[in-house]
Amino acid sequence: MESTSNSAPNEQNGSRGQKRKGDFKQHGRHAQKHGSRGRDHGRGGGGERDGDDKRHQKGDMGRGEYFASNPDKRAKTQSAGKRKDEGGENQYGQTFSKDEIAAEERRPKRKVAVFIGYSGTGYKGMQISTSERTIEGDLFAAFVKAGAISKANADDPKKAGLVRCARTDKGVHAAGNMISLKLIVEDADIVEKINEALDPQIRVWGIERTIGSFSCYQAVDSRWYEYLIPSYSFLPPHPSSWLAKQLDLLADEAGDREAYDARQEEVKGYWEGIDDTIIKQVLDEIDEDIRWEVVKALQGEEEASAKVVEADVEGDEGKGDDEDPNVERKVSEGKKADVTEAKNSDAEDMEGIPAAMVDSVISLTPVTNEPANASIAVSDAAATAPAPIPEPEATPDATITTVTDAEPEAISTQPAPTQTPEQSRLLRLRLATRKLRAAYNTAKRQYRIPARRIERIQQGLNHFLGTKNYHNYTVQKPFRDPSAKRNIKSFLVNQTPILIGDSTDDADKSEWLSLKVHGQSFMMHQIRKMIGMVVLLIRCGADIDKTMSHSFTDAKYSIPKLPGLGLMLERPVFDTYNKLHAAKHEREPLLFSKYEDKIEAFKRTDIYGKMFAEEEQKGEFGRFFQHVDNFKEPIFLWLSSKGLEATKGRGRAEGYGEVKAIQAGLKP
C-alpha cells in the first residue's frame, strides 16, 4: 500500500510535466554526488571508483593530509622534460657531448648578482625564448663561453638557477638591470671575459657574491625607469588636423575659449609661423600640377586646397611647364588638381578613412625602371607619408641634404628616357613630398620647449604620486581589481633638456626631455600610458588637474600608449636586502652607484644615440601623434574642454572607436 500511495503523486506530477526534487537513484555509481554529504558523496569524494585510481588520490584525502604525505612530484617533472626533449623542441642553451663534459674540470659555483645594462634595439626583450634573439639568451651563451657556467649545465639556464630582476619587452633598453644565478667566479677577470663574448650593446657592469637564498626578483624593493621624449612632442596638433579643429570647436561650445588660449599661450601661432616662412617657400618650388597632391598627402585635402589657392593667387613661375598632356586632370576653378589617373584613383576613395589606417597617395603605385641616381630618393621609407603633420624621414640629415641640395639632377623634373610619363610624374611627386617633409622635420628639430611648458609637465606628473587606481593606465584591469592599485614614490622631469644629434651645431640637434619615475611595481604599458596622458593633455591644452583626478575614478578613459622607443629601465633598488642581509652575512651591498661612470657613458653612446637614430629613421613619435591627431572618431575627445562628455553621443555606435583605435595601433 505504501508503494501504491507513493507512486500516485509521482504519476500525477509527471502528468503535469513537473520535475520532482530529489528523485534520484541512491545506489551504486548513480549515488548523489553533489553537496556536503560526507566522504563517500561529498565534494572531493567523487563517489565510487573502479580500482586504484592514483590520479584522484588527492580527492580521497584532505589538503593537509595530502601534503603531509610528502608527494613526490619530481618524477612527474622529469617525465614532462623527457617528453619535451623527445618532441624535438629547441633547446635554450648549448649541448655538449658526454666526453666534453667529463673532460672539464669541476669547479665550485657561487650564488651571485650580475649587474648588467643593454640597448634593446634588435632584441626581443629580456626573456627566455628558444626561437628569438633575446638579451637573456646572449648573456647565458656568454657565461658558457667565458667558463662561468660548466658544460654540464650549459643546456638549461634553470640548472644555474637564473632569475631576472625585471623583464623588458622588445626594443626596451636598460641602463641597469640584474640577474641572479650560480656562476663559477674564481677567475679575477671573469667580467672582462664575459664582456668579450658579448655584443657591445650588452654590458656586464660587475658581479657580487650574495647569500645562498638570494633571488633578485623577490628581493627587489622598487624600480627606477626613465623615459626620453623629443620636446616637439609637446607641440599642439597642426591646425589642419582633425583633432585641432575639434579642440577649437569644443572650446567654444564649452565656453572655455579664454582658458584654452591661456593654456596654449606659449605655443600660440607656432605652426602658422612655420607655414608662412618655411613651408610656403618650399611649396612655391613645387610644380603646380602636383602641388595639391603633395600637400594632400601630408596635411589633408582641405589644407591642400587652401594652400594651392594661396599659391595660385600670388602666381608661380613656370606654371604648367611640367604638365604632361597624356595625363587627364580635373581642374576646378584653378583651385585644385585631382588625381584622375586610374592607378591613383584609390587615393580619392580613402579620403574619408583616418590617416592612421591608410598610406599616402604617393605609395599607391610602385615606380619601376627608375634612374640609378634617384634610387635613394624613391625608397619605400621615403615614399610613405601617412599623415598631415610630417614625421622624421627615414634618412639622416646628410641624406636629406644630398637629395635636396648636393644632387640637383636627382630631383630633375625631366623624365629619364626609360620612364613613362606617369612614372616621371610619380617620381616628381615623391621627391616633392620628401622635400616638404624634410622642411617640417627641420622645423621640429629646431624647436626648444619653453620653461612654462616644462612646469606644466611636472604639474601633471605630480598627480601620480602616492597610491592610486591605475585601471585606466593598463590593459584588461577593471576598476574594482585590487591589483590595479600601485604606489609611485616619485615622478620628475629634468628641467634641463638633452640635446642629441651628430651635428656640431647645437641649433641643428634635437631636444629631448628626460622623465624619471620611481615605483614599487608597474603593470603592462603603465609607464607609457602615464606619460602619454600628460603629453596629450599638455599638447591639446586640456585642464590637467580636472582630467587627471577624474582618471583615477571608475570613469573609463582611452589612453594611447606612447612608443616603447623612449623607455629605459634605469635601475632596480635593493634597500631591504642591503640593510638586513648583506651586512649580517658580510656581503657587499647591491648598488648600481658603483658603476655610475660606466653606465652614464653607455647611456650616452649606446642608448640615447640609438633612440635618436631610430626616431630619425622611423619617426616613431611623429607617426604616433599623427595617428592621434587625425583619428576621426570621438574616442580621444576627452582631451577637449568638454572632457569625457565629448566622447558620448558623437560619431558612430559605442565601441566603434575602440575597435578602430586598436586597428590603427593606438591601443593594445
From TrEMBL:
Residues 1-16 have a biased composition (Polar residues). It is found in: Nucleus. GO terms for molecular function: pseudouridine synthase activity; RNA binding. Residues 27-36 have a biased composition (Basic residues). It catalyses: a uridine in mRNA = a pseudouridine in mRNA; a uridine in tRNA = a pseudouridine in tRNA; uridine in snRNA = pseudouridine in snRNA. Residues 311-325 have a biased composition (Acidic residues). InterPro entries: PsdUridine_synth_cat_dom_sf, PsdUridine_synth_TruA, PsdUridine_synth_TruA_a/b_dom, PsdUridine_synth_TruA_C, PUS1/PUS2-like, TruA/RsuA/RluB/E/F_N. This is tRNA pseudouridine synthase 1. It comes from Cryoendolithus antarcticus.
